[in-house]
């Protein structure tokens, strides 16, 4: 076989039967792979630091909200004192005022009784039902009981509270930046006890959405008791002002007013 033919034969043999070695190509790492690798490496550190990061976020949000919201300032309004109510007997600190709840009858140690609508549910509180007459402000009322029930289709609620110094402690406080409308209407005495109503209506700019409607009973020595309800703030009450009549205030909260006037009856005995 000629040399040239022999070379051609080997070349053809290699082409047909000998496998060529593949050249290894370098694997290219794309950007996505790099990101995944970095995140995987940082994951333990991220979990460890996340509570601190989250806390910093909340602090930043809170500081931002404080910059946007003005701090609220409240002002006192001792409405009964402003209305000119005065005690008519000397203060005797040896004679505490004690309230006793028996069913729908509340008896006071000064000889007065408060009868509550028998259809109402009475929930007596565990607080002490005793106060000492005082010429200085005690600062807070003593809640005696809560009353609730339905009349016709209306659900009614009232709270009974005891005061050692009703004139000095009864506070219709409100937002200094959005003053509430407070109006006192005196009614006829029951024995030596002065009675009346206090309407405390929130300013439309205030966050409070309810009215504080109070019927008060001021005993001669300055101690006293109130029944308070909290009807919803409504559109008709927005028209009221300091010059509005008693009838206008009354009609704006007719259901709750009627309940305070009719469902709680104070009577006196010869002890007064």
Structure classification: alpha+beta
* H/E series: HHEHEEEEEEEHEEEEEHHE
Mean pLDDT: 82
The profile of the biggest β sheet is: 7 strands, antiparallel
Count of helical stretches: 6
Gyration radius (Cα, Å) is 40 Å
Beta content comes to: 25-35%
Report, as a whole number of angstroms, the end-to-end distance. 150 Å
Number of strands: 14
Dominant shape: globular
Q: Helix proportion of residues, in percent? A: 25-40%
Low-confidence stretches: 19-26
Strand order of the largest sheet: 5-7-8-13-12-11-10
Draw up the topology in text.
Elements: H1 3-17, H2 31-68, E1 74-75, H3 79-82, E2 97-102, E3 105-108, E4 112-116, E5 121-124, E6 130-131, E7 142-151, E8 154-163, H4 166-169, E9 174-175, E10 181-190, E11 193-201, E12 212-218, E13 224-229, H5 246-252, H6 254-262, E14 264-268
Antiparallel strand pairs: 1-9, 2-3, 2-6, 3-4, 4-14, 5-7, 7-8, 8-13, 10-11, 11-12, 12-13
Feature tags:
6 helices; 7-stranded antiparallel sheet; 14 strands; alpha+beta; 5-stranded antiparallel sheet
Question: What can you see in these coordinates?
Answer:
- With 272 residues, this protein is an alpha+beta fold.
- Helices cover 28% and strands 30% of the residues.
- The chain has helices at residues 3-17, 31-68, 79-82, 166-169, 246-252, 254-262, and strands at 74-75, 97-102, 105-108, 112-116, 121-124, 130-131, 142-151, 154-163, 174-175, 181-190, 193-201, 212-218, 224-229, 264-268.
- A 7-stranded antiparallel β-sheet has the order 5-7-8-13-12-11-10. A 5-stranded antiparallel β-sheet has the order 6-2-3-4-14. It has a two-stranded antiparallel ribbon with strand order 1-9.
């Amino acid at each position: 076989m000629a040399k040239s033919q022999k070379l051609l034969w080997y070349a053809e043999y290699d082409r047909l039967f000998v496998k060529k070695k593949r050249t290894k190509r370098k694997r290219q790492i794309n950007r996505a792979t790099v990101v995944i690798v970095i995140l995987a490496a940082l994951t333990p550190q991220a979990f460890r630091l996340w509570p601190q990061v989250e806390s910093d976020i909340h602090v930043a949000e809170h500081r931002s909200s404080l910059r946007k919201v003005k701090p609220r300032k409240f002002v006192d309004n001792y409405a009964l004192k402003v209305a000119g109510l005065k005690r008519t007997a000397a203060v005797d600190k040896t004679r505490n005022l004690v309230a006793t709840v028996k069913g729908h009858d509340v008896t006071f140690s000064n000889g007065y009784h408060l009868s509550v609508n028998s259809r109402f549910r009475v929930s007596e509180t565990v607080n002490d039902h005793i106060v000492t007459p005082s010429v200085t402000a005690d600062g807070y009322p003593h809640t005696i009981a809560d009353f609730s029930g339905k009349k016709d289709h209306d659900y009614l609620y009232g709270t009974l509270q005891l005061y050692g110094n009703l004139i000095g402690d009864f506070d219709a406080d409100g937002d200094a930046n959005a003053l509430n409308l407070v109006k006192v209407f005196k009614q006829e005495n029951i024995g030596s006890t002065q009675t009346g109503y206090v309407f405390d209506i929130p300013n439309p700019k205030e966050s409070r959405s309810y009215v504080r409607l109070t019927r008060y009973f001021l005993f001669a020595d300055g101690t006293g008791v109130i029944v308070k309800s909290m009807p919803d703030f409504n559109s008709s009450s927005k028209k009221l002002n300091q010059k509005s009549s008693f009838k206008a205030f009354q009609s704006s909260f007719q259901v709750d007013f009627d309940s305070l006037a009719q469902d709680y009856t104070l009577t006196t005995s010869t002890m007064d």
